[in-house]
TrEMBL record:
All residue ranges annotated as the ABC transporter domain in the record: 2-237
PROSITE patterns per record: ABC_TRANSPORTER_1 (PS00211), ABC_TRANSPORTER_2 (PS50893)
Keywords carried by this UniProt record: ATP-binding, Nucleotide-binding, Transport
MF GO annotations: ATP binding
Xref: InterPro entries: AAA+_ATPase, ABC_transporter-like_ATP-bd, ABC_transporter-like_CS, P-loop_NTPase
Domain of life: Bacteria
SMART domains xref list: AAA
Name the UniProt record assigns to this protein: ABC transporter ATP-binding protein
Length: 248
């Protein structure tokens, strides 16, 4: 369970999050949507403790998640970064096993490699991929590796930042389905940031539309097309005109 409670975050004079509150129940998968610059990534960075909100609290299973106590909650979170964000100088298995080779979840090297190969298989990659370098893989394979890395520590919470950016529609659909399957089978609580409506419909149970640094609308995916909310309708249909200004 993740709760964002009245989060405010500014960069200098610019207020990005202006009282964002969002509750994601345990085992639910929520997609955060909203136009560029509305603070979606900022919200994710707050959850990860990479930004300190000016005001408000983040609760994980009821416990306040602060930078100071991050050792108690960060190991429970798996993250798939935008563009997969793999380390170029490490092999695929070393990328997947990164948190098993360093820090709190550290395991013996051979055990870490075995676990990495197991996770690679789970995302549809054969063991011979393990010793390749990220540059030798297609974009879709890199996303799979990023996903394998995110699940390597068996997280209870999974965060996905634009998981389909840069992929062709067919590969994107395969990755979306894989994410959905894995989140369901792990029983994880998931938050996905995306602009991609097909992604939302596959990955999420619920949708949260951010606008002006706050939660504007939230509800089940099934209500996406019938909400009657003009902001949501404009976003879902990608219309240039409507209450959300296309420019500025
Ligand atoms: N480190 C920073 N310093 C100053 N401004 C920042 C910083 N990071 C983000 N911003 C600003 O905060 C606003 C929100 O950024 P954020 O990346 O959260 O948007 P977003 O909704 O995720 O957008 P996108 O969909 O384009 O990724 C933007 O206007 C951005 O320019």
């Amino acid at each position: 369970m993740i709760t964002l409670d009245d989060i405010h975050l500014s960069y200098g004079e610019s207020a990005v999050l202006r009282g964002l509150s969002l509750h994601v129940p345990k085992g639910q998968s929520v997609a955060i949507i909203g136009r560029s610059g509305t603070g979606k990534s900022a919200a994710l960075r707050c959850i990860l403790g990479l930004e300190r909100p000016d005001q408000g609290r983040i609760l994980i299973d009821g416990q306040e998640a602060k930078r100071e106590n991050r050792d108690s909650w960060l190991p429970r979170i798996g993250m798939l970064f935008q563009g997969a964000a793999l380390f170029d100088s490490l092999t695929v298995w070393q990328n997947v096993a990164f948190r098993l080779l360093h820090g709190r979840s550290k395991r013996p090297r051979s055990e870490a490699r075995d676990l990495a190969v197991e996770k690679l298989l789970r995302v549809g990659l054969m063991p011979d991929v393990a010793d390749l370098y990220p540059a030798e893989l297609s974009g879709g394979m890199q996303k799979r590796v990023g996903l394998a890395r995110a699940i390597a520590i068996q997280p209870e919470i999974m965060l996905f930042d634009e998981p389909t950016t840069g992929l062709d529609p067919i590969t994107a659909s395969v990755i979306n389905r894989l994410i959905r399957e894995i989140v369901t089978e792990m029983g994880a609580t998931a938050i996905t940031i995306t602009h991609d409506m097909p992604s939302v419909r596959i990955i999420a149970d619920d949708v949260a539309l951010l606008h002006g640094g706050r939660l504007h609308w939230s509800g089940p995916v099934a209500q996406l097309d019938t909400s009657g909310d003009p902001f949501l309708e404009q976003f879902v249909h990608g219309r240039a005109t409507g209450p959300i200004r296309a420019m500025g």
